[in-house]
Design brief:
The protein has 13 helices and 43 strands. The chain is of the alpha+beta class and 753 residues long. Strands 36-37-39-38-40-41-42-43 form an 8-stranded mixed beta sheet, with helices on both faces. Strands 13, 14, 15, 18 and 19 form a 5-stranded antiparallel beta sheet that branches. The longest helix has 20 residues.
Length: 753
């Protein structure tokens, strides 16, 4: 399914939310020691800046526009802060952590403004633009060629001159070389020599170098990579890259039928492996830029396994590669000599269900090893390994989730990380020694807290809120003590006539094993003595829980404005309960989601204000799948549903995602049958609207077609809307049409309007 970041980008509607993601990318860029991740974060920052404008601010949901935001740390005791003036224009100030005083800054220029200054008039930053690490130079694509601009070369320098388009340019460490792909071959450009060098020579229509196959991009590397599958060495002298042979993979055909596709249409063909299908053959190579020679890591290309997510040792002599078996329950990290390709195993983890790729490994700059965030004890914890494969220390051993590594201070042998804490819906910043001692919870109090660490770790810029409090911003010292409040949001006085009301409740599953968090939003003028329709707004996939104890705002959304209660529930497999809950979903997608969500309907029926005869559900992608299952397998509980670009039968989705949870159809025929909406189509008795883009290259329209033809053969009425030319989600005029269609469906179904 779609990577989390792309899902967020697709569904964000408020500029403040886009700004939050920008600040997240900015923080990850500052703290990550993975050069590739830094390059991605720079790309993400640029993309988001294009979307929101230079003056946009990161705000919590529902927080006032007057709330200050951190722009950057200037040094260990000073930071630059942004707030909104009375004229609604941004005001910048430098804050002194020791004194609490701030001084106005009038000459600040944002990174976007600086980047725009490097470009000629009329040229705007875009997704093909890449920035140097110091943000003093940019490379963009113009007329299918690469152009270089910097503070010293304002007029620009044309780097390439050929009809073929360069893709995914990435600066090397030091910013004096660029790597990119062209016609699925890997190239490098030396800025000092002014020379392009081709590094690979065997690409064909189905063989790629440094370019990922569709399924690797979608399910392993992530859409944010835009198919890039190469990684710079720290010394900028080598490139690791994937060599992919897509020939074994069956082809999938999309027929483009819009008026822009001509009277005969247009065929789009992609190698797309479905469950049980052959995978692409993949191997990892390392090309030396001095000799042009590629050394192959000595894995067996014919073994059915997945190879990805390499990590360089700091001296650029060794490359750690993750190797996951086809069943996705046996993960090995192999450490390869880049001169010979020989390797040794340095990490091994198995699990009866499944294991995900490790996307946030921290490689110690001192060469001592790496830190991995693993679920091997049923919860994400931190483990410090040496390059010899021996465990140096288990840094954490919690019965709750460590969500990410924020920073490693190698000199002090300390690590900063975020985690939920014992309140599984909360969020806090923690610090510990690398040996696991001296654990400190830096932030405290109810709710969800995020904190930016000063350069030397003396202070923290903490932003917090809870479901009942819009929160504020605190300055916290290195002992976890609040030095002072920088900003406090005003708790609004609830006005039922103008505001929505949000409540966080727990709903116990019928087997008594889990207390599911549920977020309920009540409409304006809510009267508990009246009956209201309810809509489940869900995604529902494995480890995709979304409920947090943070402020949701009081400004009513469409549902609340129109007398509809909405509810979002995190089921047992949402990740909130760790692997203990997630493992239930193994070989049984659909079963526990519908079971747990049905328990939520039972709970709702016990509430005096919930109308069981108007029980709706809606979602897209996996949420569309759950909606289809709810209206069929759960037909006794839901009366109405809108299913967008849905999986309807797991035989039709890609093999990497599906087999991770379901194994193959041959190994698990009953699980596939019980997890298919087609199996329960005869039970449909509510009103179901099915929508899909006909060029969806992720969840194919075939999914909806299979359900539609089954319903027709069963003489089951339903509604259907095709969105021509659209893929897995869409914007523009058709998005407006979709929104109006959604609103109209609920108003007609619930109120006869």
């Amino acid at each position: 399914m779609l990577p989390f970041v792309i899902c967020v980008l697709r569904h964000l509607t408020h500029r403040r939310d886009l700004s939050l993601l920008y600040l997240l990318a900015q923080e990850n860029d500052t703290n990550s020691n993975s050069y590739t991740m830094k390059q991605f974060c720079i790309f993400l920052q640029i993309t988001l800046l294009v979307a929101i404008s230079a003056s946009a601010a990161g705000q919590r949901s529902g927080a006032g526009d007057s709330q200050p935001t951190l722009v950057k740390w200037i040094d260990d005791t000073h930071f630059l802060m942004r707030s909104m003036g009375e004229d609604r224009k941004p005001v910048y100030s430098q804050y002194d952590c020791k004194t609490g005083k701030s001084v106005s800054v009038t000459d600040y220029r944002s990174e976007m403004e600086k980047l725009r200054d490097l470009l000629p008039e009329g040229i705007q930053p875009g997704p093909d633009m890449v920035s140097s690490s110091d943000m003093q130079a940019v490379v963009i694509v113009r007329d299918n060629d690469l152009w270089y601009y910097s503070s010293r070369i304002r007029e620009g320098k044309k780097l390439t001159s050929d009809p073929d388009r360069e893709m995914n340019a990435r600066f090397a460490p030091g910013d004096r070389k660029l790597a990119y792909t062209k016609n699925k071959e890997l190239y490098v450009y030396d800025l000092d020599l002014g020379r392009e060098t081709r590094l690979t020579f065997d690409a064909t229509e189905k063989i790629y170098n440094g370019w990922a196959s569709w399924v690797y991009m979608e399910e392993i590397l992530g859409r944010g990579t835009r198919y890039a599958a190469f990684w710079w060495s720290p010394d900028a002298g080598k490139l690791a890259y994937l060599h992919t042979d897509d020939n074994p993979v069956p082809l999938y055909y999309l027929n483009a039928l819009e008026n822009t596709d001509g009277v005969h249409g247009r065929l789009e063909i992609t190698p797309y492996p479905k469950p049980g299908d052959p995978n692409p053959k993949v191997k990892m190579g390392v090309v030396d830029l001095t000799t042009g020679k590629t050394t192959w890591v000595r894995t067996d290309e014919n073994t059915d396994q997945y190879i990805a997510w390499p990590s360089w040792t700091p001296d650029s002599k060794m490359l750690m590669v993750q190797v996951l078996n086809r069943d996705q329950n046996d993960m090995r990290f192999i450490l390869a000599d880049v001169n010979s390709g020989d390797f040794t195993e340095v990490y091994h983890e198995t699990r009866p269900t499944w294991i995900d790729f490790f996307e946030d490994i921290y490689v110690m700059k001192d060469g001592s090893g790496f830190i991995v965030r693993s679920c091997r004890n049923d919860w994400y914890n931190l483990y410090y390994y040496g390059w010899d494969g021996n465990l140096k220390s288990q840094i954490t051993n919690f019965q709750w989730k460590v969500t990410d590594i924020v920073r490693v201070d190698e000199a002090k042998k300390e690590i900063y990380f975020n985690g939920t804490g014992p309140d599984l819906l909360g969020g806090h910043l923690f610090r510990a020694r690398l040996d696991g001692s001296k654990l400190l919870q830096v932030t405290s109090g109810e709710g969800h807290h995020t904190a930016s660490v000063s350069p030397a770790g003396s202070y923290f810029f903490e932003t917090w809120s809870s479901i009942s409090d819009p929160g504020g911003i605190n300055l916290v010292d290195k002992k976890g003590k609040v030095v002072r409040s920088i900003h406090r949001e005003k708790v609004p006085v609830y006005d039922a006539s103008e505001q929505q009301k949000v409540e966080l409740v727990k709903i116990r599953t019928s087997d008594g094993l889990f207390d599911m968090p549920a977020l309920i939003t009540y409409p304006v003028n809510f009267d508990p003595a009246k009956k209201y329709p309810v809509v489940f707004t869900i995604y529902g996939g494995p480890d995709a829980g979304s409920i947090r104890n943070r402020w949701q705002g009081v400004q009513p959304r469409w549902y609340a404005e129109n007398g509809i209660v909405t509810i979002n529930v995190d089921h047992r497999g949402s990740g909130v309960f760790g692997k203990k809950g997630l493992d239930y979903m193994h070989r049984s997608l659909g079963k526990w989601e519908i079971s747990d969500y049905s328990d939520a309907v039972k709970w709702l029926r016990q509430q005096p204000w919930a109308d069981g005869s108007r029980m709706g559900i809606t979602g897209g992608s996996y949420g569309g799948y759950v909606t289809c299952m709810a209206l069929t397998a759960g037909a006794d509980y839901w009366t109405h549903g809108i299913a967008d670009y849905s999986v309807t039968d797991w035989r039709l989705y890609d093999n990497v995602y599906t087999e991770r949870f379901m194994d193959t159809p041959e190994d698990n025929p009953e699980g596939y049958k019980q997890g298919s909406a087609l199996t329960y189509a005869e039970s449909l008795k509510g009103k179901l609207l099915i929508r899909h883009g006909d060029m969806d290259d992720n969840v194919h329209l075939q999914n909806s077609i299979w359900l539609i033809t089954t319903l027709q053969d069963l003489n089951k009425p339903f509604e259907m809307m095709i969105y021509p030319g659209e893929r897995h989600g869409w914007g523009g005029p058709k998005r407006t049409f979709q929104t109006n269609e959604t609103n109209g469906f609920w108003m007609k179904s619930f109120f006869g309007k």
